[in-house]
Amino acid sequence: MRVCVIGTGYVGLVTGACLAHIGHDVICVDNNEEKVKLMRSGQSPIFEPGLSEIMQTAIEKGKIEFTTDLAAGVAHGQILFIAVGTPPLPTGESDTRYVEAVARGIGSHLNGDYKVIVNKSTVPIGSGDWVRMIVLDGYREQRKEANTPVLVGAGSADAVPDAVVFEEPAFDVVSNPEFLREGSAVFDTFNPDRIVLGGNSERAITLMQELYAPIVSRDFAEDKSMPAVPVVVTDLSSAEMIKYAANAFLATKISFINEVANICDRVGADVVEVARGIGLDSRVGSKFLNAGIGWGGSCFPKDVSALIHTADDYGYEAQLLKSAVSVNERQRMVLVEKLQQVLKILKGKTVGLLGLTFKPDTDDMRDAPALTIVQHLTRLGTKVKAYDPIVSQSGLSHGLSDILIETDPERLADGCDALVLVTEWQVFKSLDYAKMAKLMNAPVLIDGRNFLDQDALEAIGFRYLGIGRAS
């Protein structure tokens, strides 16, 4: 099938590359010329395991192109994905100006061919009908500029006296929310738990099912013997709500186990054992029960805030979700409090952070807990150093001008009064901690993700503190 993906961030680029990989003809559109040049060369502008490889293969096979020409993308695609960002506004609601601009642009380039316009961006509930309205506005504006009269709505020709009436463009809007995890987005695309399709057009849903057929039948899955991927077909609003509800539930589950961890710290229980015990209950499940310093990134904070804002708009106070946010905000201070317990006065001390990104296997620093931790430590007069496998190599400061970015773990440890594990990069399990301990002023390690081997670290002389761990 012919596909156009507009926006090449995490969601758009992964979607476009993966659809090309399974055999569709894809054009990815982005308004950033430098970014387009980079992608044409086969390089990914983001760090995502496996992405560059499938991009290069798709380019070599002629299955994917990159352009700044929206008109060319719209003309090419039977299915048009809107995959631009919807960042949070200070109020908590989503900033939909980029979605609006793309929808209007699509409308201005529509011709007589039938199109399925897909909301892949995480958009406020009710955006399906709103996008349809904006697309029609763009179509009408373009026709007016060309002095071509258009139909303003079935049965509404009386609103434009003496207007010549033409058919409206043939298109339908579908909601197809993404459930990709940064760091494993390519894997998630080929091995999804489910595919959600929201819409009221049987024709559009049929085309979307055809598009995803190779993924549904697990032709590209890691385990091809698994049953077919469930496809949830529902209405537009319910599909949009599924995305928000899923992320809000996972964020709340993390906040819950972090609250339990804080209680464990006070009563001497071990949250790792508690999580294992409750996770074996099939009604609870073991995923997202890892206590630590809370959630961050581009999805959970934005989506939970947007759902709270939607509830407020409709006269309901989402108290549980607000509490989940409050617990998460406080959780970032736990590391600072533990450092104060061990080092007492932090002014004049040196602390080394192991990891900066909000999660491993990504270069994303959006709403990373590290940013909050750095802010509080520097305010308290602490010298902060950091080492991150991606950030240290990229040479980018990510706004961290107040700290020293080290190029290797040994340099990080040198002269530190404590180390703090912030991001659970797999490489951190195999560092030479015995050598690092000798370079430190005092071998103290605060494990903000309960990720490292406490017994092994204590055996080589570290004082180890986890989150909700028994001493």
UniProtKB/TrEMBL annotation:
Q: What is its EC number?
A: 1.1.1.22
List ligand-binding residues for substrate.
179-182, 243, 288-292, 296, 359
Chain sites annotated for binding NAD(+): 30, 35, 86, 122, 182, 302, 366
Q: Which residues form a coiled coil?
A: none
Query: Which pathway is it part of?
Result: Nucleotide-sugar biosynthesis; UDP-alpha-D-glucuronate biosynthesis; UDP-alpha-D-glucuronate from UDP-alpha-D-glucose: step 1/1
PROSITE patterns per the record?
A: PROKAR_LIPOPROTEIN
A GO molecular-function descriptor: NAD binding
Which biological process, per GO, is one annotated for this protein? UDP-glucuronate biosynthetic process
Q: InterPro entries, per this entry? A: 6-PGluconate_DH-like_C_sf, NAD(P)-bd_dom_sf, UDP-Glc/GDP-Man, UDP-Glc/GDP-Man_DH_C, UDP-Glc/GDP-Man_DH_C_sf, UDP-Glc/GDP-Man_DH_dimer, UDP-Glc/GDP-Man_DH_N, UDPglc_DH_bac
Ranges for the UDP-glucose/GDP-mannose dehydrogenase C-terminal domain?
Answer: 352-454
UniProt enzyme class: oxidoreductase
The catalytic residues are 299 (nucleophile)
Keywords annotated in UniProt: NAD, Oxidoreductase
The protein's annotated catalytic reaction(s) are: UDP-alpha-D-glucose + 2 NAD(+) + H2O = UDP-alpha-D-glucuronate + 2 NADH + 3 H(+)
Q: Pfam families from the entry?
A: UDPG_MGDP_dh, UDPG_MGDP_dh_C, UDPG_MGDP_dh_N
Tell me the protein family, please: Belongs to the UDP-glucose/GDP-mannose dehydrogenase family.
- What is the name listed in the Swiss-Prot or TrEMBL entry for this protein? UDP-glucose 6-dehydrogenase
